[in-house]
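Hi there, hope your week has been kind to you so far. No rush at all, and the record is pasted right below.
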Amino acid sequence: MTTTSAETVIAPARAKAAVPSAAVRRKQGFQHGAWFVAPFLVLFALFVIWPLLRGVYLSFTDANISGDGASFIGLDNYREALQDELMWDALGHSVYFTLLVVPCITVMAFLLAMLAHHIERGKWLWRLCFFAPFLLPSTVAGNLWQWLFNPGTGMINYVFGLETPWLTDKSYAMLAIVITTLWWTVGFSFLLYLAALQGIPGHLYEAAKLDGANAWHRMVHITLPMLRNITGLVIALQILASLQVFDQAVVMLDFGPGPENSTRTFVQYTLEEGFTSYRVGYASAISIIFFVIIAAVALARMWLLRNREEGGR
């Protein structure tokens, strides 16, 4: 009996000592997690952080594409960039493209998602048709629509009875790129909206029907408010992507700046300065300026989202 009593007294103390503390568990969890994220961190540092730091350094030099004889020139590249009319024109083209694409693609994605969500027959076919263009490489989409917009052999002018010089007139060249982008990229935003629509509880619509709400009232007072967050996400992603437009523009215009430089975007101008004019230092400076603009847009989106969430509490 004595031995048994001693064991019953000592056993809990030993068990308590064997259990690691919360601090030890956190340390162990951090050590194990670090091994899982280490490959990503290495690649991120190698292909994102290092090029960014290297670009910042080059922006303060007069480096050329050969990499030889670079000397430190301070803020001269940035001063030149602020007075560079071609750079501001390219930025204006990117902003103009963004202002055209973002509202259109947001509305189109929402309407297509509503159609695919409520249609009864062939749902999978409609969803495939709306999303499939997004899977195409940019070169395929650009070359396809370059042929469609061709004034001589393209189908756009033939079907609608037009004689519009889409890709040779500065009044239509950017519009052609916008139309191509809408067809090519709307599938991604469509998929986001479709997933969000499927997450809206059905009992909300049933209760609204019992209260006599018609389809328009249900969309305005239930669907749109429930999709507010996903709409903000779609707009933010589209702004960031549209500001960086490059692929379809250069492919459709045969790697040129378009008629009277009307489709030269900021990214294209940066590449021209770096790989055509061989001014790597100056190209790095304007790319850093563009990086700051993109970061400011992203931070503004985060700030607005946080304020809206705090205001809704």
Observations:
- Confidence is low (pLDDT under 50) at residues 1-10.
